[in-house]
Amino acid sequence: MPSITPILRGLLRPTSPTTATTPTPTATPPLPPWLGHPTRVFLTTLKFVAFTHLIWEYVISMAPASGPSMLPTFEVLGEWLLMSKVHRFGRGVAVGDVVAYNIPINEEVGVKRVLGLPGDYVLMDTPADEGGGGGGGGGRMIQVPKGHCWIVGDNLVASRDSREIGPVPLALIRGKVIATVRPFSEFKWITNSMERVDSPAED
Amino acid sequence: MAARWAWGSAVAGGGAARRSKFLGQVSHYLIRYATWIPPLIWFNEYVAQVTSIHGPSMYPFFNSQYNESLRQDLCLVWKMYAQEGLRRGMVVTFRTTVKRILGLPGDVVKTKPPYPYEHVVVPEGHIWVEGDGDKSLDSNHYGPISARLVTGRVTHILSPWERAGRVRWWEHPLRAGVHRAA
Question: What's the superkingdom here (chain A) (predicted)?
Answer without folding.
Answer: Eukaryota
